[in-house]
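Comment thread on ticket #2218

A.B. wrote:
> Attaching the input chain for the structure job we discussed in standup.
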Amino acid sequence: MEDIVFNGDLTEVFTLYGGVPITYVLRENSGELRIDDVQFPMPDKPNSVKELMEIVIPAYQFAQIAAKSQPPEDLQTPSSAKELDQLGSHYFQIIKQMQSICSFDFNHTVWKDTEIVPDTFFSCREHLETPSPLFVKSMRINR
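C.D. wrote:
> Ran it. Output below, let me know if you need it in another format.
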């Protein structure tokens, strides 16, 4: 530990890990200090893990929903009104989940009048779930 700075309900703990400066930001919450952020230098990315996760988590959620979006095999070619209704319910649930994480503009442009999930949507999950070597490399801290 290099230093601790107290500033009201905010406390910053400055450390070095393998020569890399890391700052733990703690915030008082109901009488207890809780980690509010971890900050360290990341080239071409926010130095704040909190800010970075605010960006990464919605993309990850999008990928997770995409992974579940393809209808079950028995509903992919519905042969009855009941199966067609089940397929519609499946798509409705997927679109509803997507709307909960997409922006107003995206929802208005893409999901507003959509009743089915396009086939190309199914393949986006592979792209979003593939780790970026540049991202993984910048997240490692050399010891």
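A.B. wrote:
> Thanks. Noting for the ticket: The two ends are 16 Å apart (CA to CA).
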